[in-house]
Amino acid sequence: MSQAELPFLLHRPDRWKAGVIFASPHSGCLYPDWFLHNTRLPVQALRSSEDAFVDRLIACAPDFGAVSLCSLVPRCIVDLNRGPDEIDPLVVRGVPRHPLNQRTLAGLGVIPRVVSQGRAIHERPIDRAEAERRIETFWQPYHQALAALISEARRRFGRAILIDMHSMPHDALAHLQDPRPDMVLGNRHGMSASARVSDAVCAAVEAQGWRIRRNSPFSGAYICAAYGRPSQNVHVVQLEIDRSLYMDEKTIMPRPDFEDFAARMRRVIRDLSRLDSEEQDAIAAE
Fold first, then answer.
1. What CATH number is associated with residue 175?
2. What's the number of domains the chain is made of?
3. What's the pLDDT at 280?
4. How far, CA to CA in Å, does 276 sit from each of 114, 172, 196, 199?
5. N or C, fewer C-beta in 10 Å, the chain?
6. Half-sphere exposure (Cβ direction) of 63: Cα atoms closer than 13 Å
7. Is the pLDDT of residue 187 over 80?
């Protein structure tokens, strides 16, 4: 598969400083005609499942010595933050009704059944061969690239830090008492990242004046579970941002003050991109 055919954008810095990777698996917004011809929903409704503009927010990562990895494929086609076996029998024909986790039961498996507000994506269930094609064409290349980056970071720096960037609807926090958090850090309750790395992420966010909460209501999904191995110096943190802080959720357009928000996020990315970089320089020199 040529670079032009890859279902993601990978940007490397001139000098990778500390083994930090910023990734956005849900900001893809390229809707192919073959998909649009087989969905009952207009593009505006489909886009409600995107982490819209998160790719723009992390585009600066290479400027500070970190890697950025962003999917081009919309989440409603294939969800890169789900396991390849999280297949919903209500959306894929010929799949056994094996025990399903709560996400898949809710229609949010690797081939999603619904977008926000429970709106069905497909006119009818798709063939198993089509589901397998999507996984092979879109899911596998992204995860091969991600796994390769993590392996390279461990080899070069002795550790890897993945900041898996997401956005959440403002209403996802409606059940919380004020003051609500602006962001939610998920580390699977310490299973996917060390306290030290998690504390550093929280400190960088709070330094910009934002409130952050840990592991509730989002503790981290497949990517945290599949890659996070703190005992092996692979740390994965999921960071959810309240969409209303930087975009109009109804029109899916950046807010007028988007660039102000992006500038603050740029400082977060700057601080995390060089996390322990001096220590890593010393290790690399040995």
1. 3.40.630.40
2. 1
3. 42
4. 41, 34, 11, 13
5. C
6. 10
7. yes
* Dihedral sign, Cα of residue 100, residue 103, residue 105, residue 107: negative
User: Do the Cβ atoms of 157 and 18 come closer than 8 Å?
Assistant: yes
Looking at per-residue pLDDT, the higher value among 100 and 41 belongs to 41
Position 23 confidence tier, pLDDT thresholds 50, 70, 90: very high
Cβ proximity of 251 and 177 under 8 Å: no
3-state SS of the chain?
CCHHHCCEEEECCCCCCCCEEEEECCCCCCCCHHHHCCECCCHHHHHHHCCCCHHHHCCCHHHHCCEEEEECCCCCCCCCCCCCCCCCCCCECCCCCCCCCHHHHCCCCCCCCECHHHCECECCCECHHHHHHHHHHHHHHHHHHHHHHHHHHHHHHCCEEEEEEEEECHHHHCCCCCCCCCEEEECCCCCCCCHHHHHHHHHHHHCCCCCEEECCCCCCCHHHHHHCEHHHCEEEEEEEEEHHHCEECCCCEECCCHHHHHHHHHHHHHHHHCCCHHHHHHHHHC
> Looking at the DSSP assignment, which residues form a beta bridge with residue 238?
164, 186
Averaged pLDDT for residues 128-146: 97
The residue segments making up the domain with residue 242 are 3-285
46-64 average pLDDT score:
97
Q: What is the mean pLDDT of the chain?
A: 93
Whether 273 shows a pLDDT value over 60: the answer reads yes
Q: Which residue has the higher pLDDT, 199 or 276?
A: 199
- Say if CB 78 and CB 134 are below 8 A apart: yes
Query: And the tokens for 204?
Result: 């960088």
Residue 277 has pLDDT above 60, yes or no: no
